[in-house]
Amino acid sequence: TQLLEQSPQFLSIQEGENLTVYCNSSSVFSSLQWYRQEPGEGPVLLVTVVTGGEVKKLKRLTFQFGDARKDSSLHITAAQPGDTGLYLCAGPNRGSTLGRLYFGRGTQLTVWP
Amino acid sequence: DTAVSQTPKYLVTQMGNDKSIKCEQNLGHDTMYWYKQDSKKFLKIMFSYNNKELIINETVPNRFSPKSPDKAHLNLHINSLELGDSAVYFCASSQVQGRTSGYTFGSGTRLTVV
Questions:
Q1: What is the per-residue pLDDT across B59-86, written as a single tens digit (0 to 9) for each?
Q2: Does position A93 have pLDDT exceeding 80, yes or no?
Q3: What single-letter DSSP state applies at residue A92?
Q4: Could you say which of A45, A105, A108 has the minimum Cβ distance to residue B103?
């Protein structure tokens, strides 16, 4: 059973398009993190959302934490080829061991020029 | 200055061999982790050390043994390698006590067992 479900699994779009990827759970998380992983590299932390309903912006990326803290979304405006990568959401479940993060399976995004 | 460095980047070895992967972090974080990423890109935790103390030991074969000589280093030794051990192994660190941080990952070690 996957604690965090990400959708879609794959997304292939043209440069300039907008997109949204989702991270859902039936469990409550104290916070959720989003990472981007490029080929041959480790995941890199993009943002952490902590408060239910919180919205954070990172240039063309907008992250939202659901009011009930069970889901999150990542919206990219005017996608560029440099946005290509595997987007992972992760979070510490209630009662989880110190520092432990559960990862979703990721959304593989490809942006074509 | 690389924050989390792991070596080697690539490791190709025959079944039955023993190999080690080394990891070092210079961020002053108190917790270090080993994750395994399979061919479908799923990241699964293997081990976690907090200030040199083992705190997470997932269902991992006994052939895998982590060692943390100090809180800046976490190595992974694998005995009697099997074909199914082929994967990318990531080391990561985070600050858990006090002001918590997200994970900082190394760039991975691609292990291929032939």
A1: 789 999 999 999 999 999 999 999 999 9
A2: no
A3: P
A4: A45
Nearest CB among A42, A48, A90 relative to B107 is that of A42
CB contact under 8 A, A106 and B92: no
More confident residue, A68 or A94: A68
Q: How far apart are the C-alpha atoms of A70 and B102, rounded to whole Å?
A: 19
- Whole-angstrom Cα distance, residue A89 to residue A97? 18
Q: Do A42 and B45 touch (CB under 8 A)?
A: no
Is B100's pLDDT higher than 70? no
Domain A5-112 class, CATH top level: mainly beta
Its sign, for the CA torsion A38, A99, B1, B89, is negative
Residue A1: Cβ within 10 Å count: 4
Which residues in chain A touch residue B55, judged by CB atoms under 8 angstroms apart?
Answer: 97-99
Q: What CATH homologous superfamily does B4-113 map to?
A: Immunoglobulins (2.60.40.10)
